Amino acid sequence: MSMGTESINTVPIDQTVVDAVEEMLKAEAEDQAEELKKALKKEIDEGIVTVEVVDSSVIIRINEKGSFPSGSADLNPGFIDVLDRIAVAISTRPGKVIVAGHTDNRPISTQRFRSNWEVSTARAVTVAHALLTDPTLDPKRFLLEGHADSNPLVPNDTPENRARNRRVELIIKRVKEEVLEDVSAVKPDGAVENGATVEPTIDQQQPGVFGPAVDELPFTVESENIIDPVIEMNSVNSDDLVPAVTPEDKEQKDNANSNEDAQRDEVISIEELI
Asked: Which pTM value belongs to this model?
């Protein structure tokens, strides 16, 4: 294994990957929006709720009509069931849940609320609390905002438009950068981990024909220990090639030497008799 001085924990992210993630998030948002439209069909038909997709975010707009009494942050009792259905729909999908309150531009000053900032924030808190009665929703997903009249949908020039601007929005949002961070965290073979190069092992390679399958071995073989069985003969001097001596060959040679010694002793004996 070769040693390194710096850990590499990510793989490169190019524009192709970014585009693919964006398309995936848009498709997920469209699917979730369709699911919500089916669950909230009655309220959508009555003009109480709207659902739309903007970029890769799903926006559920809860109009003041049917949800809050005028100038109040207390939910109408009949609207609790609507929020229960919304909670079920968003609990099955990942992403941040931004709850944002909005008002029209008419000033308010009551014993409870000093301004539209307090009204819009209090309504966002009320909706969030109602949603979080569902135990499957994680509070860490939620972010609450109060915008007062700073972000109107339409000009505040008619009663109808002012009514549209008085709303609470639920924005279900997947953060592209977080998804890309998850993608880049995958370590490829050969990445440096804890100062040492992680080499691919034999079980990551195509099985060979010179031995048992890798899953039959009682140990892991690093790729750098694998020796190529093919020897290029033109790189070897023929004078250096020495035939291998097997045990059988050695035994035959020893027997032949013994016979020769016996014959030599017999000749010597005859000569002595003459």
From this structure: 0.61
